[in-house]
Amino acid sequence: MNYSQDYKQKNVIVLDAIVVGAGVGGMYMLHRLREQGLKVRVFDDAPGVGGTWYWNRYPGARCDVASTEYSYSFSDEIQQEWTWSEEFAGQPEILRYLNFVADKLNLRSDISFETRVLSAIYSENAKSWTVETSGGDTVVAKYCIMATGNLSSPHFPDIPGLRNFKGEVYHSARWPEGQTQFGGKRVGVIGTGSTGIQLIQTIAPSVGHLTVFQRTPAYAIPAKNQAMTAERVAEVKSTYAEIRKRSFEHYLGMGYMTAQMGLRHLPREERDRHYHEGWKKGAGAFMGCFPELWFNKEENDLAAEFIRQRIRNVVVDKNVAAALTPTDYHVGTKRICLEMGYYDVFNQPNTELVDLRKSPIERITENGVLAGEMEYPLDILIFATGFDAITGALIRIDIRGRGGKSLQEAWKNGPRTYLGLAAPDFPNLFIMNGPTSPSPVSNFFPAIEQNVDWIADCIAFLRESGRQTIEAVDAAQQRWMDHVNEVAGQTLFLTANSWFMGANIPGKARQIMVYLGGFPSYSQRCADVARNGYHGFALDA
């Protein structure tokens, strides 16, 4: 590279590309760029690969997308050699899978673990990015790719008194390795989203007493998880081509959700029969009954009331059932949760629910949690309070583009991107599954593969055509943001205070941060941009 001589006598590592993050996206990005002959290095602050699946080791951690589709499609050899044991894999199995892929592709040799990227600064003269790491390295590369993930920056709520608590404290997204002992202990869990539900239903049988602190009840539907039989495995491996095709063509990237159109127009008895059949089969079949869930209030109301009635049917105590029943937001406008016995937990005599809407947490004491003037004594306190989603991991890195422009400053009123992939004033900076991409509401694997392939193909184009930089144009970004907001306005999403809107983080700008036009539509738009000479981007020779 022509600028490498500038660093010949300095302690600087010169590369073609830097990738930040060794999760699902960073791993595949490394593989693609190495195939193209680039010199690449990946940096991750974890001791191993896996990203969110490395850190989220909490009891019961599990994927809410079918294993057969929550996996890489780019290598038939990998998908034939790997065998899933469950329809919805747990965290240990997913992490084993990602380690299997890392070994198969020999990825670790180009990954720096336990190394955090502190800053990424663009040089207009050198047309390169300089990255400083926690290990003291200075790394220079033409291309910088952020594969930091949507759910990688844990959120700790600012509750007074936490430092005074004498018991054990855990956050679900930074769970320690090894077995945590719950037997006979008084355990409190703050948070009842996807993570909280999985954790609660898993530890409830073993704890001495369980106190669940709930602010917002969730719509949770049965996963109906089961072991993968030999016959099922053989069926999957012989039909992977069809499975992947359905996945990439599905609105959410989940081909196993077969849509049943028009059920809401059927007579109630016939309609409910379909709903009951879907409920018995599990998540994919049930959600397939509501293909217009996000866009049609009538259909959404039918889904909501059906789920509410199932909660009432399971939870014996009517007051507890009422507190667990969501009524003030539409189904799907917050992430739908899958459950495996969650509501049954609240029929156990050792479980109590604290409704934080009626009894907010005042502070944490030496011995527990004070909420609504009542102290709940605890030995263990668990935060299942989610993430500073989508943007959190990005803005915690000091990223500066042209003229020293800060990404954090550029996004202070909400993130703005072109296709969720790039932003003006940040040449050769690619953001994988970034703000305004569909990935947070989609199956991450096809969304990640699509983004990686687009970025890798773009870099190949730049190198083959002799272009030095690519940079999103303001006007193109504005058109994309207008489209994102227009589509969102046709949905029910804007009515909810969700992490899709940044509403779970105090002080964070409120805006829709995801593209709701569907994964296939998004993929086609990205392909059209590339096919038209990267329309909306400025290319510098």
Care to describe what's here?
With 541 residues, the protein is an alpha/beta fold. It folds into two domains: 4-49 and 107-153 and 389-540, 3-Layer(bba) Sandwich (FAD/NAD(P)-binding domain), CATH 3.50.50.60; 162-383, no CATH class. It contains 16 helices and 20 strands. It has helices spanning 24-35, 52-55, 76-81, 91-104, 194-203, 230-238, 240-249, 268-281, 283-287, 297-314, 318-324, 392-395, 407-410, 444-465, 474-489, 519-531; strands at 13-20, 40-43, 111-112, 117-123, 128-133, 138-146, 168-171, 186-190, 209-214, 220-222, 337-339, 351-355, 361-364, 368-371, 374-377, 380-383, 398-400, 429-431, 469-472, 537-540. The strands form five sheets. Strands 1, 2, 3, 4, 5, 6, 17 and 18 form an eight-stranded mixed sheet that branches. A five-stranded parallel sheet has the order 7-16-8-9-12, with helices on one face. Strands 13-14-15 form a three-stranded antiparallel sheet, with no helix packed on it. Strand 4 and strand 5 (128-133) form a beta hairpin. Helix 1 packs parallel to helix 14 (444-465) and helix 14 (444-465) runs parallel beside helix 16. The longest helix has 22 residues, at 444-465. The protein is globular, with a radius of gyration of 24 Å. The model has no long low-confidence stretch (mean pLDDT 97).
Reading off the top of the CATH hierarchy, the class of the largest domain is best stated as: Alpha Beta
Mean pLDDT reading: 97
Helix content: 25-40%
For CATH, the homologous superfamily of the largest domain is named as FAD/NAD(P)-binding domain
- Overall shape: it is globular
Count of folded domains = 2
- Specify the CATH architecture of the largest domain: 3-Layer(bba) Sandwich
User: Would you count the extended β strands for me?
Assistant: 20
* Structural class computed from helices and strand pairing: alpha/beta
CA distance, first residue to last residue: 15 Å
Strand content: 15-25%
CATH fold call of the largest domain? FAD/NAD(P)-binding domain
Radius of gyration: 24 Å
Largest sheet geometry:
8 strands, mixed
Could you list the spans in which at least 5 consecutive residues all have pLDDT below 50? none
Q: What is the count of DSSP helices, taking H or I runs of 4+ residues?
A: 16
